[in-house]
Amino acid sequence: KAGVTQTPRYLIKTRGQQVTLSCSPISGHRSVSWYQQTPGQGLQFLFEYFSETQRNKGNFPGRFSGRQFSNSRSEMNVSTLELGDSALYLCASSTRPPEDNNEQFFGPGTRLTVL
Amino acid sequence: SQKIEQNSEALNIQEGKTATLTCNYTNYSPAYLQWYRQDPGRGPVFLLLIRENEKEKRKERLKVTFDTTLKQSLFHITASQPADSATYLCALFNYGQNFVFGPGTRLSVLP
Fold first, then answer.
1. Does A43 sit within 8 Å of B44, measured CB to CB?
2. What are the Cα distances from residue A87, in Å, to A12, A23, B89, B98?
3. Is A70 left (phi over 0), alpha (psi -120 to 50) or beta?
């Protein structure tokens, strides 16, 4: 079974631009979560989707948004990029929602650099 | 305030010894806790999950304990090998907040 895939793997943008990152979960997985990982703040939860519904959102500004499609693929968007948005963005999928005690499978991440 | 801490930023141990990593939390009531391994440039890989009503879980050379009174989880790797060198992350699931990750402990197993 193929793992979680994320595209692109690397991205360089300039301040003020916007960016869209994509995540394809493992086949059959309906829960997708997004995380931001930085050296200073570690891994921080962004959003969680299950069956196209955003069920939970972390403490991030409204510039960060996302969605999930009917095939469970998910995208996240960051508008008006700031230098501090430079990070590794990780997507994780699972078969059931997080409250159902199940493991998450992470993708390799998208490394975003904002200049 | 809410906090999740892992006791050491880095831990060096000799091959063959048992590595013990600690995860402490404050002002959370986690439904369950997970441990992940992360290698440089890669996403975390799930290792073990332990629920709030469980005291201990084992998987091969790995063991995790969960003490909700002490608000602490211990993660043990027995007979450690250089291939176990990685960063280990604890993550607690808190209703309404989803997953909260600790800062990680970078383990180095020396041959």
1. yes
2. 11, 16, 18, 20
3. alpha
